[in-house]
Amino acid sequence: MTSIHAALEIGTTRTVLAIGESEPGGRLKVTCHAEIPSSGIRKSQILDIPQATQSIRSVIREIERKQDAEGAKVTIGNAFLAVTGQHVKADPYFGSAQVEGARVGDDAMNEVLRAAHSMTLPKDRELLDVIEQDYALDNLAGIPDPKGMAGRVLRLNTLQIHAERNRIQNARTAADAAHLEIREPLFAVTCAADAVLEDYEKKNGVLVIDLGGGSTGHAAYTDGYLVSTGVIGVGGDHVTNDIAHAFQTTNAQAEGIKIREASAVLSIADNLQPRIKVELGENTLLDNRTISRRALDTVVNARMMELFTVIRETLEDQDLLHRLHAGIVLTGGGARLRGVEALAEQTLGMPARIGRPIHVDGLEDEEFPAAYATIAGVLLYASRNYEDHSILDGLFGRLFSR
Amino acid sequence: MNSESPLLLLGIGTAGSSIAGGVSRAFGPGLRYALLDTDVVSSIPDAPFILLGGDRLSGRGAGGDVVAGRLAAEETIRNLDAHLEGVRLAVIVTALGGGTGGGATLETVKHLADRGIPAIVFATLPFTFEGEDRQRNARGVMTMIEDFASASFFIPLDKLVAETDSMEDALRRAVGTLASGITLFWRLVEKPGYIRLDTERLRHLLSGAGRGRFATVTVQGPGRAAEALDRLMRSELLATSCGPVRATLCGILAGNDLLLSEVGTIADGVRGAFGGLSFDLATVNDEATFSGRLSVVVMLFESNVRTETEPRTGGGVMSGRRRKSRTALNAGPSGRGRFKNVEPTIWNGEDLDTPTFVRKNLSLDI
User: Fold this and answer.
1) Is B275 part of the contact surface with chain A (CB cutoff 8 Å)?
2) Does the residue B312 lie in any domain?
3) Domain of B109: which CATH number?
4) Domains of chain A and any CATH numbers
5) Greater confidence, A19 or B62?
6) What's the mean per-residue pLDDT of chain A?
7) Residue from B279, B251, B274, B275 nearest B263 by CA
């Protein structure tokens, strides 16, 4: 049975809506997606609900226009929501259970699972996910499947990912006003990781860095499961702001300079074209202004190196850095920045590559598929966990025709 | 030993001693140096030698154990004092990743810092094939060395060899390349020239210089200045680092045939290629050594590895740099721009919404 779902990402720089459909072979295909520039968002947080609502309305209209053009029509009533921002936290937690009859059976497995999912959060926090890690049986740790093993006390280690309830509620409010029901909030960073990673990479140890516009998330995997994740409120917008501050440009000009000219690494090649012309637009008298390429790259390099250093120090504190043998996978629109792979390699001391959604079809023709890792991961989660035409449900979903 | 020279070369560990020994042989009489090792077997005959951790390790080496190397140095580093009289600047050559190089280098740099002697550290990083443990040992000690050294050069051994080298050739080439580079550096400081770089000037230049990159080239024949510049610009040792350059030191060594135009070509080329807020030039005229040849030494110092505003640690030798509180917000400079009304991002006491180049005091040649 095929299922069809929608995913919404209210990002700092863009709002993305996508429809995914599971195919008979089990693969997921993104059948349509649309994106428009966001407004009212800073550092992955909604600051202006009416503006965010307008962004969501616009992206819904855009996806409907695309559907019309293709001769298909889906009126989206609900969507899974990608959540990120520095308010998202991950805490370790474990559940334990007594083993009856000296061998681990179904009762102990069920009991330990229930206990591991029973963490009580403060009222202002909302649980996004519970990541099950390894089992421990008495003093023996690192057990992937303890069923049938002898022991007395079974323990299941988990990572509990939770977020500030009000931040999620703001997104729900904005979506509701745009007649879109939020079906389930999902952590954007682990969704992106699931979309771009192979299982063997997770087993060998890998780090995903999701470079967003307003924040940057990381997810580290070893032995097949998530061991560390977090979000820092620094993203591509900070690079833009730094450029604007350094060269006294508008944010729009700085964004243009970043996209067209900036590099995260400094190189001798900077001297081949030492000056860059700043596009100031039509309504200015300063039409011949140039800036130093080396100065530009120095500004960008300093910011990005600091960002990677924060992640490196986080992983060093957790004694994880040396266990990530499969290297770094970069996702998100921020991974478009020239030289960012090289800088990540230098700063974190391991090979880096740009990720692309490998478990999802339909995004192959995108110019930069890594920018769609999160939305692909959200759809992947939905298709793996819900087998229904759920896109029809919701506040205002009414029509489905193909 | 030339007790008059204010410049002292210290080789630490087996590899560091080997490189220092190579410098001694190449430079000839007048080089003031000493070797420090936990292993008596690898010591070089007739070289000034300080045994580290004699009681603890009985001269058998640290066995690749960084902690053993550090403890050995901690117990016996005072034996170095006899070699420090009149020393104004110490140059340390070492190999990180192993026990003595990793552990004793840090203790040595600390000891020198305690006595007010600035140190320049040339440290090799392990070959990739040596494995993750040694790489990790090296990485772990790098930042701590930076806390106490005036300037430090971390040189990946992979970049000193060719992929087609045999194992034996690779090791010999790596040691030889580094030894010849440091020898050139030594001549730059110790030999007379029209633009002199003596120990005091070097001491001033390198004060708090931080992490740097280092490369040398030697050429001869027609067009040698242009060729030297071309090779420097293609040098992996200079090009692969990612940090912005704050200061550049360029040394030119040649015989009496050194032309003014050659100095101009190299100086302008290096200044243009690598940038930096300050640029210093030194020349050495040594007909006996360089007749017909021209050598160039380039040192680049990066500015964003550690700023002068960051505190240095006084203790906690193996605990890494002390990090600032992650909760206190420094009253930093402005520049939050579009982030001025949103929840700040604080890390190690710094407001990350403020532009990094502002907080790190990076000057920009706009």
Assistant:
1) yes
2) no
3) 3.40.50.1440
4) 4-86+166-193+357-401 (3.30.420.40), 199-355 (3.30.420.40)
5) A19
6) 89
7) B251
